[in-house]
Design a protein that fits this description.
This protein is mainly alpha-helical and about 350 residues long. Helix content is about 70%, strand content about 0%.
């Protein structure tokens, strides 16, 4: 008795081969992680355009972009880290730590401020390496690892500042050699017509471009998605999980260094207690931009749109002359709505595949 192999399914005469079908533009758009944030950004923009007369003024829009860029510079690497399946609760205070190291080293050593800037870069990157190495070696959740780093940095910021300067703020370094050139790099502003543009907007755009290229055009980008989608499966197919996660934490540290230097060279002095709570804003911007809490899904552009929503909301409330105490309410509402919208978009995209 012989067994007969099942015959291969046949296509209807004239029916197109599914392997040759191309996704429609609508289906492609539905699959983009930043789609929900784009809809949300348009809604916020239209809303504040209607309720705040001054919102559409060029000077107001430049202020919105500046507020968005300060958050967006950090939101971009935080988004990449979340795509890789991890969190960093120390990102907010690390910005302050970066500024404090740069200021105090320059002041105490009476050196050119650029020396303090580069020492700060090394120290900040070392914190990123510490977070990544502790995570991969101990196998503890990133929530626990970075929460510990957050608490340690908070204590070090306050303790060292009071020990060295005697107060909770640093001494002014505005009259030191190299301050003007460093300010031109990290805190410069230039005028186009009647609009003042901060250099942080250029830093933000550059980071978005680099992060998008890394995610979509490099092997490291594939590793990020693979690690976030499943660490054990990624390791099984040869992805260097340890190096990838340490690299992601170093990316967050590098962005924290940029923001820290901007903070220092914008105000000459740094308050040691700043930055606490900002880590949640970075995460919120990434989630609003389409990043999944569980990892493996998201984009750098989405995080930038999430930061833009944050900037429009924070400044739009001011221009509308509302009580700023309502800001946190709107931020929480946007987080919930964006998360629900992103989940719906993703389900629709999967259903149409």
């Amino acid at each position: 008795m012989s067994a007969t192999a099942p015959s291969a399914p046949t296509r209807e005469p004239g029916a197109p081969d599914e392997r040759l079908l191309h996704n429609s533009m609508l289906r492609t758009l539905m699959g983009r992680p930043e789609l929900g944030s784009i809809v949300g950004a348009l809604a916020v923009f239209v809303f504040f355009s209607l309720v705040a007369d001054s919102f559409l003024q060029a000077s107001s829009l430049s202020t919105v972009l500046y507020a968005s860029s300060v958050i967006g510079i950090m939101a971009v690497p935080v988004a990449l880290l979340m795509i890789g399946g991890e969190f960093d609760l120390s990102a907010g205070v690390l910005v302050t730590s970066s500024a404090l190291v740069s200021s105090m080293f320059s002041y105490q050593m009476t050196a050119n401020v650029w020396v303090g800037v580069f020492v700060s870069l090394l120290v900040t990157l070392a914190v990123g390496v510490f977070n990544g190495a502790m995570l991969t070696r101990t196998k503890l959740p990133s929530f626990i690892i970075t929460l510990g780093t957050f608490l340690m940095l908070t204590g070090l910021n306050l303790g060292f500042t009071k020990l060295i300067s005697g107060t909770v703020s640093t001494k002014s370094i505005a009259d030191m050699e190299g301050f003007t050139s460093a300010k031109a790099v990290f805190a410069h502003e230039f005028v186009i017509g009647d609009v003042t543009i901060k250099v942080t907007i250029l830093w933000w755009i550059a980071l978005i471009a680099v992060a998008t290229w890394v995610l979509l055009r490099t092997r490291f980008g594939n590793w990020i998605f693979a690690v976030g989608g499943g660490e054990h499966a990624a390791r099984a197919v040869g992805v260097p999980v340890t190096r990838t996660k340490i690299g992601l934490y170093m990316g967050v540290a590098f962005a924290a260094w940029i923001c820290g230097q901007h903070l220092l060279f914008s105000f000459d002095v740094v308050q040691s207690g700043e930055g606490v709570g900002n880590e949640l804003i970075y995460i919120i911007a990434a989630v609003i931009g389409g990043c999944l809490i569980t990892g493996g899904y998201g984009s750098a552009i989405g995080s930038a749109i999430g930061a833009l929503i944050f900037g429009m909301t924070s400044k739009g409330i001011v221009y509308a002359e509302w009580d700023p105490d309502w800001f946190k309410f709107f931020l929480g509402a946007m987080l919930l709505l964006a998360t629900l919208l992103n989940a719906w978009v993703r389900k629709r995209a999967e259903a149409t595949r």
